[in-house]
User: Fold these one by one.
Assistant:
Number 1:
Amino acid sequence: MTEQETAENLSYDTFAASVARSRALEEDIQKNPRRHRVLTGDRPTGDLHIGHLFGSLLNRVRLAKMGVDSFIVIADYQVLTDRDVFDQISLYTINLATDYIAAGLDPDSGNVFIFPHSCVPELNQLLLPFLNLVSIAELERNPTVKEEIEAAKMARMNAGMFTYPVHQAADILFCKSTAIPVGKDQLPHIELTRTIARRFNAKYAAQKPIFPEPQGLLSNAPTILGLDGGKKMSKSRNNSIPLKASPDETAKIIKTAVTDSERRITYEPERRPQVANLLEIASFASGVAPEIIAETIGDGGAGKLKQYLTESLNEFLRPLRARRAKLEADPATVRRALDKGIAKAREVGEETLREVRGAMNMYRQGS
Ligand code: TRP
C-alpha cells in the first residue's frame, strides 16, 4: 500500500449516506440553481426508451429548466471498453442527441451542452494525471466494474475497462461540475471522482483548490421494470418501449406485456410487481396516482389496463415524438447542437487543463 492510500483510503460509501447527501444537494440546487453545474451522460449504445425517460431524462430536463448549467456527455470512448462493435457509434451518437433534444433538453437555451467526450481532447488529457492519484487496489474494489466484467463475460480484462471510472472522473471534473444526476450503479464512480478531486487539490493545489467535490443526485423515480416482468427495462433484454416507437408500435409492445392471472386490477407492488409496473408507467404518463388508476380499471382486467396505458403513454409522448420526427427529418440541426456543445466543452476544458498543468508545474509552450 502506498503512503497516500494509508493516509486516506477510498471507501465506497453506504447507500444511505449517498441518499442523505443527494437530498441536501437537491435542496441547495432549489435555492441556488446558478451556483451549480450538472454533468451527466450515457453511453451511445442504442436508442433510449421510456425507462430512461422517466428514470433520468425528465429529471435532467427539470434541472436544465431551473437554469442550472447542464453538460451532457455522450460517452463514446467508454463504449470501447466492453464491446467489439464500433461501426455504429457515430450513428448512435446522433440518435442519442436526437432523443435528448426531443425529450426537452434544449441546446438553444444557452445552458445545455451536449457533446461526445471523444471530441474534447482537453477532457481526455486529464486522465493522465488522474491515473496517478488512485491505486490498483482501489480500482479493483469498484463493485460496478466487477459486475460489468462479469456481465460482459470477458476472458481478459483490458486496462481501459479497468480504468474507465478514472476517465469518468475526467468527464465529471473537467467542467468542475457539482451535481451528477445518476442511478445507484454509478455511485462508486462518483465516490472515486470525489477522492481524485480531493487528492489532486491536496497534492498540487493546496493553496487554491481547483476542483469542487461533486455529488450524486439520485432521482426518486422507481426503477421501471421490463415488460417481460423481469428485471430492469433494457434494450438488450428486448423488453422496452423505445422513445422513437410509433403509437402503433407502442400499442403492440404493450399488448405483449406480462401480467398475472388475477382479473381484478390492484396496485400491490410487492405481491403483483408486473401489474404494479404497468400502473406506475401509466401513472408517470397520466399524472394520476397508480392506486386510482387501479380502481378505475378494477374488473376490466389486464386488457383494459393495457389500453389505458397505451392511450396515456401515447398522449404523453406525442410532443416528444413530434419534435423527434422534425429532428430526424433535419439531422443538420442535431449536428449543429453537438458542434456547439463540443465548442463549449473544449473552451471550459482548455481553461481547466491550463489550471491543472500550472498547478503541476508542467512546461508551458511559448512562455
Ligand atoms: N458510465 C455511465 C453509464 O454507463 C455513462 C457515463 C460516462 C457517465 N461518463 C459519465 C455518467 C459521467 C455520469 C457522469 O451509463
Number 2:
Amino acid sequence: MITQIKGLHHVTSMASAAQQNNDFFTRTLGLRRVKKTVNFDAPDVYHLYYGDEVGTPGSVMTYFPFGDVGRGTRGTGEVGVTEFAVPQGALGYWSDRLAGQGVSGLHQDALFGEARLQFEGPDGDSFALVESPSRERFAWTGNGVPQDAGILGFRGARFRLRDTAATAELLTFMGYKKSETSGAISRFVIEGGNAADTIDLEEVPGARTAGQGAGSVHHIAFAVENRAAQLEVRQALMDTGYQVTPVIDRDYFWAIYFRTPGGVLFEIATNEPGFDRDEDTAHLGEALKLPTRYEPFRDKIESLLPPIAA
Ligand code: ZN
C-alpha cells in the first residue's frame, strides 16, 4: 500500500458550449474560474478550471468545452457522480437557488448519513452537493454565494462499474479503506488526506458501457504533495503491473495517467506549483494563459477559440 495520495486533486469533464459551461460554474454554482487555458494536447479547445479562491487541490473542476459535440451516454466504466461539499444546513439554499435557475434533475436524499442534493449540469453532467463535516475549507464568495452555503471543494466521487472488485483492490493499494456499504454502493475513504477524501463504488452489473461525450467525466485526478511523491507512486503502480505515462508538465501541476481495470482514467497530480504560478491571485482565470510552446501561435489560437464573456 502507498501512502502518498491525499484525496482528489481535480476532476476533468467534457462540455459543449464554453460560455454556457463558464456561466454554470461561476454564476450558478458560484465557483471561481481560476484558470483559462487550452487543452495542452489540442490547443483549439479551451481548458477551463473552476474552484475556490486559489484553486486548492481537491476543489478544482475542469472542462474541455468542445462546442459542437454530442452528449455522453451514462453507463459503466465512468465517474457516475461528481460530489461537491457544502456546509451543514446549506441544501435548502441550494435547492431554492438551483430550482430558481431552472437546473434539472434536482433530487434530495441521503447516503451514508450525509444529506445530498443531486442535480444535472448543462450537458447532463451528474452532480451532487453533499452536506459535509467542516474541514477548514472556505467557499469562494466572489460570485454572490454566501460563505455559509458556498461550495467548499469536492466531497468525492462515485464510480459506476460493472464489477467493482479490481477497482476496490486498486483503491486499497492507493491508501483508501472501505468504510461502509449501502446496497450496491461501497464507500472508500482515505485517512490523513485533504477533505475530498471519499470514493464510492457502485456496482451495476447489467448496465451498458458509458459512451463519452459532453457531460462525461474524462478523468479523475488524485493529489500528491510533490514530484518526489509522484515518482514513488508511479514506480509502485508500475511494479504492480499498471501501465503509467511518463510525467507530463501541465504548467500548474505535474501529471501521470493510467487506465484502471474498471475503465476509469486516473491521473496522479502534484499539489505544486499551483494556479498562481503565472497570475496574481487577484486576477486568476482572467487572461488566456498558454503553455510556452504555444505562445508563438497565440494569435491563431485566440482566433479559433470562442470568446467567453466574464
Ligand atoms: Zn487532469
Number 3:
Amino acid sequence: MPTTLRISDLPAHAGSTVAVNAWVMTTRSSGKIGFIVVRDGSGYLQAVVGKRDVAPDLWERFEGLTQETSVRLEGTVRADARAPGGVELSLSALAVLGPSVEFPITPKEHGTAFLMERRHLWLRSRRQVALMKIRHEVVQAIRDFFHERGFTLVDTPILTGSIGESAGTLFETEYFDLGKAYLAQTGQLYVETACAALGKVYCFGPTFRAEKSKTRRHLTEFWMVEPEVAFADSDANMRLQEEFVSYIVARVLDRRKAELADLERDPKPLESVVPPFHRITYTDAVAKLQGMGSDIVWGKDLGAEDEARLTDGLDRPLFVMNYPKEAKAFYMKENPADPRTVLCDDCLAPGLGEIIGGSQREDDYDLLLARIRAQGLPEESYGWYLDLRRYGTFVHSGFGLGVERTVQWITGTPHIRETIAYPRMMYRLYP
Ligand code: 4AD
Ligand code: MG
C-alpha cells in the first residue's frame, strides 16, 4: 500500500508512488489521455491517465467521474514545472469513495442569491477556499502577534448583562429569573477589568450587532479582537495598532501568495502598509471633507462615503483621531485639549474604511458616571465596571479590530459576506 499524502506534501515525493484522497473538480479527456483535477483542502492536483496504460475498468471509472465525487488516487508523483504546486500524478489506481450526482455549483457563473443558499457547497470553490485560508492566516497572525508581545488571552462572556457599545443594536434574550441578557457587542468592558489584573490582555471572539443595515461591510455576527494595555495612552494605542495591522498584512503577503493570486488580488498596494500610518484629527477631516463637497457637519460620525473620500489614493491606512463625544461610546476619555471631543481613533483602510475603533478609556470615576447617565444607560448594571475607577484607576487604552473587515480589505473582496464561512446578516440565517 502506498503512503497516503496530502497534496501539499507531494512536491517532496517526486518519483514515489503515493495515494491521495480528494474531491474531483473537473475532468477532461482526448479519448486517449485523461486528466482529473482534484482538491483536498491542502492544494490542487492534476492526475493524468493514459487509456492504454491502465486496465479498462480504471478507464471506465475515470470516464464516469463527476464533479465533487470523492476519490482515492494512486500513482507516481512527477515533477512538472507548469503544474500547480510543481507536480502531477501519473495515475495507476482509482477508487470512487463517494459518488456525487449533479453538484449544483458548476464552473459557469451563478448569481449571489443562488450561491448564498448553497453556502455549504459554495465553500468548496477555489475562491472560497482561498478566502478561508487567508482568514485563517489573519487569525493565526493575530494570536501570534499578541502572544509574542506578552499579552494574556482573556475570554469574555457572550451572554452579558450590561450594554457594551450602544443600546441601538442589541440582540436580547430572556435569562431565567434575572431579566434580559444581551449577546455581547464587545468584550471590552470585561477585558478592561482583566487589564488591571494582567497588564496586557486581549479577548478574541464572536460579537453581535443587530445592525439593520444592508451594506457591504456589516454583519450581525462578526469576530473581533480587542487588546487592552495598562499605562498606555491614545498615542501608544495608535502605535500598537499600526504595528499590529502591518504585521497581519506582512504575514499574509509572506505566506498566502497563492491564495492572493487565486483571488486575483494584486499584492503591490499592500506592500506599502508599514508604520507610520497617516493621521488626521476628526475636526480637520470634517473641514477637508466639506472642501471636497461632503455635506458632513461637525458632530456626526463619518459615513462610508466620507471614509472613502479620506482614504482615496492613500498607500496605507489613516487614523482619524478625536471624534466628538456625541458620536462615540460612553467609555472614551475626554480630550483635555478640547473637551467636546474624546481621545480615540478609527483606523481607516484604503478602499474599505473603518477596520479598527480604539480609544483611551475614561479613568475618572465622576466623568465616567456622568457619561453613563448622559447616554441614558442603566447605571445599576455598571457597578462592577465602575469599580475599576474605585480601586487603583489607571491610564489605559485599547481597540477592536474586525476580522472580516480586515480580510475583506486585504483580499479586495467587494462584500463582507464572503469573508466568513457562514455569514449572519439581517436577511440571512440559512444555511
Ligand atoms: O468601532 P467598534 O464598534 O468598537 C468596539 O466595539 C470597541 N469596543 C473596541 C475596543 O475599543 N475594544 O468596532 C470595532 C471594529 C470595527 O472597526 C469593525 O472593524 C468591526 O469591529 N465591526 C464590524 N464588522 C462587521 N460587521 C459589523 N456590524 C461591525 N461592527 C463593527
Ligand atoms: Mg467604530
